[in-house]
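W.,

You were right to be curious about this one. When I first looked at the sequence I had no strong expectations either way, so I just let the prediction run and decided to look at it fresh. Below is the sequence, 396 residues in total, followed by the output.
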Amino acid sequence: MIGMGPGTLKDFSFTRFQHFRLQWVYQHGERFLNILVRIWRASYQEKTIKSLDGLRAISILMVICGHLSFAYGASFPQAAIYFSLMQSTGVSLFFVISGFLINGFLIKEKKQSGSINLKLFYFKRMFRIFPPYYFYLTVMIFILPFFEVNQLTKVEIASAFSYLWNYIYSTENWFFGHSWSLAVEEQFYMTWPFLLAFISIKWSKRFSVLIFFLTPLIRVGSYYLFPEWRPRLSIMFHTRMDTLLFGCFLAYYYQFISKENFQRVARKINRFYLPMISLVFLVGLSPYLRFLFKGSYTMTIGYSLEGVSMVILLVYVLTMDGRGKIFTILNHPVLRQIGVLSYGLYLWQQFFLAHTVDFGSTPLRLFYLYGTVILLYFILEYPLGRLSKKLQQSFF
């Protein structure tokens, strides 16, 4: 090669490599930024039911604050106790919202077409829930040995992968511990849509009311008849299903009565300051009663009273209709973005907020958590969401 001195070919190759690397960073970096913009824009999108992403955000923030409280228990014991109690309220709020949304979609479909397409329902759930969940479990299995924490047993792995952690787990393993709530939701998905598909909407509504009254009795009965279940009474499906069905019950009225009648009911509720009373109860009185009486309160009337209070708050939120400071807060883009990412945040906060793993300061832990969830949304949830829509168009 005329004109090329020593090292020129090496320099040339290195230059080409640099160019390729910059081109790759530009292409994928641009794609990543586009995904971030899409997530941010999702906060601005007009939604059929406004404010629910904001409520999801509040739920996950309550859980995160509850888990962070373990790190500050020595310095702020009273605050740590309070937030550790409030994390349970956050999970219950997730349940009520989930029951409201899922039953709302099912009722709407059955009202329009006369039936429920169970195949389509489970196809959507599979693409939405399974990949992020099983990815988290798989990563934990491979990386936890490097952090020198308690090893996962075969029973724990099997119960988490089969969504049966709330029934057959063997120890209190922190990193899979939150899978109990995901198991409760999955067991709800496996039972309630089938029930609604084969009975009338009116009878399913009556059934949900029956469950409201039976579940506290089931909890008390389970406590005395099955002593070995006592440590798990707050996490099993048959002892927590009423929380989900409170949301289901609200969905009936939201879907069936007119907007004017629904707002009339909301005005009657507001007239007696029930939303404010419910909020004070959920953030003040109920945690205090939970602290004083523990299971004697939650297993009997506690979960039921919290469910009723959350339904009252949801009625208020659903009828704000673009007015007031609360509506503005719940629909703020930042809060709604957290709501969009709430599933991923719930999965991964268990790892990054673990007090047995040293990730540095609390801001650094939250940075790692949020960055990981954004990255996984970019490489996993968003592409699978697009694939799911394409497959639905092709096969359903």
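Here's what jumped out at me. The radius of gyration is 24 Å. And, maybe more interesting for your project: DSSP finds 17 helices and no strands in the chain.

Coffee later to discuss?

I.
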